[in-house]
Design goal:
The structure is a homodimer of 117-residue chains. With 117 residues, chain A is α+β, with helices and mostly antiparallel strands. Chain A has one domain: Orthogonal Bundle (Arc Repressor Mutant, subunit A), CATH 1.10.10. Chain A has helices at 11-21, 27-37, 46-58, 81-106; strands spanning 25-26, 62-69, 72-79. A three-stranded antiparallel beta sheet of chain A has the order 1-3-2. In chain A, strand 2 (62-69) and strand 3 form a beta hairpin. In chain A, helix 1 (11-21) crosses helix 4. The radius of gyration of chain A is 18 Å and the shape is globular. In chain A, 30% of the residues are buried. At the A-B interface, helix 1 and helix 4 of A face helix 1 and helix 4 of B. Chain A binds a DNA duplex (30 and 30 nucleotides) through helix 2, helix 3 and strand 3.
Chain lengths: 117, 117
Amino acid sequence: MKSKEFIKGTLKTIVLKLLSENEKMYGYEISRKVSELSKDEIQLTYGALYPILYKLESEGLLTTTSEIVDNRARKYYSLTDSGKTFAEEKVSQLQQFTETLMQVLKTGPNTMLNFEQ
Amino acid sequence: MKSKEFIKGTLKTIVLKLLSENEKMYGYEISRKVSELSKDEIQLTYGALYPILYKLESEGLLTTTSEIVDNRARKYYSLTDSGKTFAEEKVSQLQQFTETLMQVLKTGPNTMLNFEQ
DNA sequence: GTTATATATTTAATTTTCTTAAATATATAA
DNA sequence: TTATATATTTAAGAAAATTAAATATATAAC
């Protein structure tokens, strides 16, 4: 069982990151891309993904266009201008946070205590 | 406003990490230490911290001892043997996750698309 | 003296976020 | 005709964290 708990809070920013790299993407594609990039370590389930997309849309950060591809409905999501700005901010903040977290996790183990015996 | 959302899911592991470096710590101390190590970027509020500690205790991963210091009650938390093993696992998993996340965030921006025009 | 700040723990209501699961539907390979 | 892959949506429930308040002592400032 992969450690899913750590993803919490980062999913939205990952979605924003992918959308900032592509003119338009659809839900399934986003989910696959995350699996691919993370070598299946990070999974973006639909139950998590679609609510995120709806919320970003309701906030005016992305727009949707529907297309029929191979007879199947496909809904594309694209960042708006404010969405692009927001995405840059979030990604930058997450990178910063990640570095800080690594610092916190790096200290020790038992710094300065390895001289005993 | 600092990006607090990213912390979700990582708090427990941060607590475990600190406890694995110290024989015993009390709640307030843990909270302060996280602020210090992260230069105030990560905040462990009591509403988050104490429920985490209670849960770890109920799972047998840590034990508590109460002391009176300067007339004030102070409750120390220490990892049990299984707690130490668990802490190592969690920290290692979080480090792995963090590296994966950085890889995902690193790709792009707009790889291969900067030749247009 | 009393006010503010720092130390210290606990608990509860609420919100956010995610998991799990199910429903719906088409295309294609076995 | 069965399984697998593609594709979206929604809802119930759980988990985790936020916010806020209650309680209590010590000490520094005014």
